[in-house]
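Supplementary Note 2. Why include the ligand at all?

Several targets in our set were suspected to adopt different conformations when bound, so apo predictions alone were not considered sufficient. For every target with a known small-molecule partner we therefore ran a joint prediction. The input for adenosine-5'-triphosphate is given below.
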Amino acid sequence: MSDTLTISHPQKPVVLGRTARWHIVVRFGEIALKKGNKRWFMQKLRSNVERTLTGLPVSDVTIRPNRCFVQVDDVSAWPEISERLANVPGVIHFSLALVVPPDIEAIKEAYAILAPETPESFRVRARRGDKRFPLRSPEIEDVVGQWIKDRTGARVDLSNAELTFGVDIQKEGAFTFVEQIDGPGGLPVGTAEGKVVVLLSGGIDSPVAAYRLLKRGCKVELVHFTSYPLVDRSSWDKCRTLTQMLAKYQYEVNLHIVPLGEVQQRIVVAVPARYRILMYRRMMLRIGERIAVKHRCQAIVTGEALGQVGSQTLTNLVSIESAIDTPVLRPLIGLDKHEIIDEAKRLGTYETSIEPDMDCCQYLMPPKVATSSSPVELAKVESDLDIEELVAMALDGVSVEEFRWPDVK
Ligand code: ATP
Ligand code: MG
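The joint prediction is reproduced in token form.
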């Protein structure tokens, strides 16, 4: 017996003398709990699954209560298929299944194909979706379990088995599988009513904040502020890479690039140095709000976390957001930096985020930031600035870049 099990995926498996087919069984998490709108959620997930698998050899997506089936036409593409599916919000887990006739002998043959190596311990999990099948779920588990035990000598372990043999009887046949791969959970992107603007800095936090909203079904418009051409384009370039990564979840995403350098220069001459960063942030929210209105977004999202840096104390967060009427969502508010880093690593954005850059907040950075402020105080501090003019100046220079994924011609 070897230490690791080899899962075999032969291109044309033969069961009961007939060619068997490969399908993916995709299971949904929270959608299963939806009542009236469940169909709509499922349709959305189905179209997201189809979109995600564009260009890969799959066909026929069928929806059933709490799962969907996707036919795999060429199983050699499974590594790429599974890598992509693992990123679809709404999917809790999925399996590559061999679909065989609904017949106990065929199910045994399927096991032999799927698990050519003997595991140390195993269990059988059966589900009879098609009630015409003569055996009930526990009976299928008993009969197939006994057969595997007699044939291989492996031990049955119901709580901690090395291998679980899944059998799902549907009207198309028996879906059999030995592997279960985790999806992200959450809700299908596009199921939240409305959209948000995410302020994307190129740092570690904001891509994670964007992902949190995407995972709850919300679509995003990404907005990056740059001091280019007064500094180099490094943060802009990082945001492009990050946007390309986030496009995996939304398929089509806009990155709005807003030149902030001149606005910053105006702020620097008009306000005391310790308020500078707070003023930059108020301007970012004001400009973000205009973009939100234009693109019908209901809220603005930032990667701020309480107390992470001096500009993110509670009083500062409150007085920064008092500049606008649109709600500001901060999905990372209660997370420690190391928790955000862990999530950025899982997401794959971390390596890009830590590349050195010249962000607009580093440009004309004050030596010290006011760690406490009030809305009235900040309104007074900026009273010499023509805010409308500054907003208009920045909006005048906005450019929009469109990103698509998968990038299939
Ligand atoms: P991150 O928070 O993404 O790691 P950071 O630490 O450089 O980047 P902070 O100073 O923590 O940024 O800024 C707090 C939040 O303000 C960011 O999470 C982001 O939402 C927003 N923000 C800051 N700088 C920019 C920028 N140049 N463009 C767009 N949004 C920005
Ligand atoms: Mg931060």
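The first strand starts at residue 14 and ends at 15. The two ends are 46 Å apart (CA to CA). Comparable summaries for the other entries are listed in the accompanying table.
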